[in-house]
Amino acid sequence: MVSAWLFNDDKSDQRNPHQFSPNQPISLAELAEFGVLYFFIDAARGEAYYQSEIDKFAKARNYKNRDIINIHKDTFPNYDEKIKIFFEEHLHEDEEIRFVLDGSGYFDVRDKKDRWIRIAVKQGDLLILPAGIYHRFTLDTNNYIKPMRLFKEVPNGLQSTVTSQTQTRTPTVRSTSNNSSLSERSIPIQTTHALLRRLLRLNSTRFMLRLWKLRLERPTLVRSICTSSLLVIFLLLRRSMDST
Ligand SMILES: [Fe+2]
């Protein structure tokens, strides 16, 4: 069963739980409020069982493709570099769907107050992160996870590693795409509309910080926001001068 809590940024190893003392748990209902959905499929019952359940789940939610990756220091190429990349905050324009076949790890997601929420996943946990949510991933101190990734479409660069359910009635997913990133950083980031909605929810300080972070990722949008803001300030000043 998945568990989640408010992330304590104590600057220690990212693989640590990072809980406050006392812990500040986050319920599944709270996760659902900002679009993070949780399901459980008992992967310990064996491949035949979980494949059958995943087939039904994927059909219901229109996930056409899937693959499996195996992240462990002994088998995963460029392990240390990839672990750092996974932990970089990012977002996607599509859902991120992960079903944990074995091992464990942490997904961190930002809530509506821009706080990091840490979600601990282990065998059988199926997590759906909504499009446009800021998130990151890290292994925990067990240093191993084997997730199945499900996709509505195949992300760029993963075509050769992903099995299409539409091509086979009983897909046997054996792709061990160790070169793939768990976070598919090549997928375009969220839509401008979703991003603006998120920015407008922030207070002034966080808004400025977020804008600064976005300057490389979305330079055109940041320029537009700055230009619009300057125009509004100019008009307000003119109005103020006219009235005096
Ligand atoms: Fe991601």
How does this model look, in words?
It holds the Pfam family ARD. The structure is a single chain. Helix 5 (204-217) crosses helix 6. The chain has helices at residues 28-33, 47-61, 79-86, 192-200, 204-217, 219-243, and strands at 3-6, 25-26, 37-40, 65-68, 71-72, 96-110, 116-122, 125-129, 135-139, 144-151, 163-164. It folds into two domains: 3-167, Jelly Rolls; 192-243, no CATH class. Strands 1, 2, 3, 4, 5, 6, 7, 8, 9, 10 and 11 form an eleven-stranded antiparallel sheet that branches. The chain has six helices and eleven strands. By secondary structure, the protein is of the alpha+beta class. The structure holds fe (ii) ion. The site of fe (ii) ion has 6 residues, from loops. Residues 90, 92, 96, 135, 183-184 line the site of fe (ii) ion (FE2).
Helix and strand layout, with pairings?
Blueprint: E1 3-6, E2 25-26, H1 28-33, E3 37-40, H2 47-61, E4 65-68, E5 71-72, H3 79-86, E6 96-110, E7 116-122, E8 125-129, E9 135-139, E10 144-151, E11 163-164, H4 192-200, H5 204-217, H6 219-243
Helix pairs in contact: 5-6
Bound molecules: fe (ii) ion.
Fe (ii) ion is lined by residues 90, 92, 96, 135, 183-184.
